[in-house]
Predict the structure.
Amino acid sequence: MKVAAALTTLDALPLKSGGRIVAVDWDRLEQRDARRLRELGVDEGVSVEKLHKGPFGVDPIACRIGRMTVALRRAQAAAIIVEPRDTE
Amino acid sequence: MNAAPLVALVGNPNAGKSALFNALTGARQKVGNYPGVTVERKSGRMTLADGRPVEMLDLPGTYSLTPASPDEAVTHDVLLGKQPGERLPSALLVVVDSTNLDNHLRFALQLIALGLPTVVALNMIDMAERDGLRIDAARLSAELGVPVVPTVAVRRKGIDELKAAIGLLATGGAVSVAAGGEELDQNIVELQRRARVIAAAATTEENFRRRWSHRVDAVALHPIVGPILLAAILFVMFQAVFAWSAAPVNAIDAIFVSLQQTISAHMAAGFLRSLMVEGLIAGVGAVVVFLPQILILFFFILLLEASGYMVRAAFIMDDLMARVGLSGRAFIPLLSSFACAIPGIMATRTIDDPKDRLTTILIAPLMTCSARLPVYAVIIAAFIPPRDLAPGIGLQGLVLFCLYITGIAGAMLAALVLRRTVTKGAPPGFMMEMPRYQMPAFRDVALGLWQRALIFLRRAGTIIAFTTVVLWLLVSYPKPPAGYDLPEIDYSIAGRIANAIEPVFRPIGFNRDMALALIPAMAAREVAVAALATVYAVDAGNEATQERSLVDRLRGRWSLPTALAFLAWFVFAPQCISTIAVVRRETNGWKWTGFMLAYLFVLAYVAAGATYWAAVVLGL
């Protein structure tokens, strides 16, 4: 029997792995950032996948959110709580 | 009054709005600005199948109607009929990206709720099909309650159908907005969920994958290959500016020389002939000759923008930009500033964070704009030998590359200092959609180039022609009395001004002619070339020597350290009244504009001095 992996945040999700957004901690985001994230389609239930990371450090990261590829920094990604896709 | 009905084109960024606008209006476009704000107003004439004219208004690409940025505020105000000087549109054309309906339909729903007659263009339908998405336009139309037309704007597909749909709506009569302003504040999340339900209902998914974009990104965003690719693209771009332009530059040069000869042969010697040949044609010709290089640069920038690579470049650069207190968002305005600081500074309005934006504006003039190219090109051609260091790597191109790098390094350093002092604040965020890659449509790139060429030639025909003629008068009059044994120019007004300010510039290795060229170069940097051409043409004394190019004249007159110091000056000096005017408008006053002028002039003076003395010490 497969057990759902523990919840994590989008910034901590390993590269090339995916999952589903289960919650977003809107309150820890600046209002401006929260609005932009909503406009870019961040919402509960949307599938995500971490695709790339900037070459010169830890930031930014590129994630597929729904059908869109979005670049963001880890500080904002930390507010997005993800249930990783089950791994065998 | 314009009787033609006004149709506003609205949509998310990256929906293919500009391509659709070009497809609908062709080259009949008017580009201007909304008063008081720095949002571009683009409109064009479209003719319907039955011959009726329609005025299309291309609104800025935004994600919602929340008026948070100036772009969004203009979109919001135009659509509610609150924008001063703009009619309320009689219909809306909403553009959505077929491959990203989930997201784009949210904005579409918000727009449809306004109550204006609306058509939805289901754009990039070919891409959706390639990704394995089948979209039922009829179903979508039923769900949204408005006509939906599938289009491929870059291939000009679906345009006639779209025009027909617009024709049915745009009757020209004034329409009142049904929804009140309050209803606009609909919850984004709520709308988003509705959008998802509608998108899911209209779409049949067959193994959805963005194959192309994913494959390209695997290379373009690779941690090692990505930055190398970016550096290579920029390097090729700057090499091309020199390599590709040689033939057209010579051709344009030849045209101006033959024009001078023709006029000289058919006009009696005198004031008017001198004014035409030595003042106007020599001056304007010296600037227009650089049109090919400017267009090559714009060509690359338009290509990078249209292909979707520009955002990847921002992604790669974000972390480096963050280290000097900026965000990757600043990269695109700064990269545009390589063509011209004015569109670059105007593009900073997409940066949400005010401090981030202000810093970007203050450093944008350090990016080597195309107006500096004529100055660089002349000095490099005169003093740097055209040797190849390795196959494909010319010394001249390398020096040009170094000048660009110096400007970038100066800008980064300035940002670092500014963000720790005068523009201190919380670090800006970085959030951007990364659009799919697209093959840029030749016509859209050509149209963009054409608009830029017109702007440049208009400048050459007005401000540059005017300043070169004024300068020619300044350097030619008053004429010295008989028996005056110094060069004529020393007796002229300009000679006297230059003599007065020359002591200020002498410590950094500048001679009187250079001090002279800097005065009219405030109008536009490239005028420095025209000014030098005028100064030396006059100094040479007779029109026969007009044929000798400016390059030949500079050799021998300037030492190498002096030439290098002049280059260093132009890397930093804020020599452009138009840029200063734009900064004043964008920062809403003289405070930051004055600050920018002061710090850049000091930087230029120090850099030119350091370059001169370093070169002298090295014995160059």
DSSP finds 26 helices and twelve strands in chain B. Residues 250 and 289 of chain B are 8 Å apart (CA to CA).
